[in-house]
Each structure stands twice: as C-alpha cells, then as structure tokens.
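Incident log, support desk, overnight shift.

02:14 A customer reports that sequence design results differ from what the structure should imply. Their input is reproduced verbatim below. On-call engineer (initials T.W.) acknowledged and began investigating.
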C-alpha cells in the first residue's frame, strides 16, 4: 500500500509541474510569443536589471543558442536593443519603447495575475510553499548527482 501511495504522489507531483508549465506555454502562445521570448520579457520586467545573455541563460536554464535566437528575433522586431556590456562579448539587453509596449500588453498582465494568485495564499502559506519547493529542488539536485550517462 505504501508503494502505491508513493507512485501516486510521484504522478501527482509530475502532473502539477506539467500543468504549471502548460499554463505558461499556453499563455505565451495565446500572446503570440515563443516560450523563450515570453520568459526573457518576464525576466526583464521582474528583475529590474539590464542582464546580459549569459544571465538570461542561467535564469531560464536554456542553452545560449536558444536564448540568442530569441534575442535576435526580438531585436529584429524592434522590441530589444543589445548594447555594449563590460566587454565586447557581453551585451546588455534593453527594452525599446516598442518592447515596453509589448510587455504592457503581455507579460505585465501575466505577472500581475501570478502575483494575485500568490497573494491569495496567506503569508504563512506563501512562506511554506516557497520553502518546501526550495527544499525539494535542493534534495532533487543532490539525488541527481549520482546519475551517470546512459
């Protein structure tokens, strides 16, 4: 019986994660954005910094190639400007006026609703939710350390 409960919990956890991802995938598509573009704009609107590409890659856990393609597309569409960073290889990512307008029509609305959903939890529930999710991710990373290539 205990093994069945464990399997059901694993299924439920997997289902919750996939549903969460699907919510954002669907919203990005509905707004006419690729997932990567959506998350780049999300970061630009929530982090209040002018990141470089490597920082975006680290935040999104995406490859440099995937992020670069999305950045180049948004730059060509006039939503972003890539300016010189600390060295020639790093470029700061800035929103243009058109990019700010795009964010106001898209990710800003999502961020507001996501914030509202989080605020519908009590303060204690918010702290517990975040603490447990952080703890689980740490434990998962530790347990994944021992996996070798197939």
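02:41 Re-run completed on a clean worker. Output:
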């Amino acid at each position: 019986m205990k093994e069945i409960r464990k399997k059901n919990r694993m299924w439920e956890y997997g289902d919750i994660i996939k549903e969460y991802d699907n919510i954002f995938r669907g919203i990005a598509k509905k707004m006419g954005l690729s997932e990567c573009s959506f998350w780049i704009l999300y970061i630009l609107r929530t982090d209040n910094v002018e990141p470089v590409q490597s920082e975006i890659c680290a935040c999104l856990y995406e490859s440099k190639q995937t992020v670069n393609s999305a950045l180049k597309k948004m730059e060509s569409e006039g939503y972003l400007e890539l300016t010189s960073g600390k060295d020639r290889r790093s470029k700061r990512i800035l929103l243009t006026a058109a990019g700010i307008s795009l964010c106001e029509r898209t990710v800003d609305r999502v961020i507001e609703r996501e914030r509202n959903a989080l605020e519908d939890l009590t303060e204690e529930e918010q702290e517990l939710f975040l603490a447990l999710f952080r703890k689980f991710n740490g434990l998962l990373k530790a347990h994944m350390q021992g996996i070798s290539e197939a």
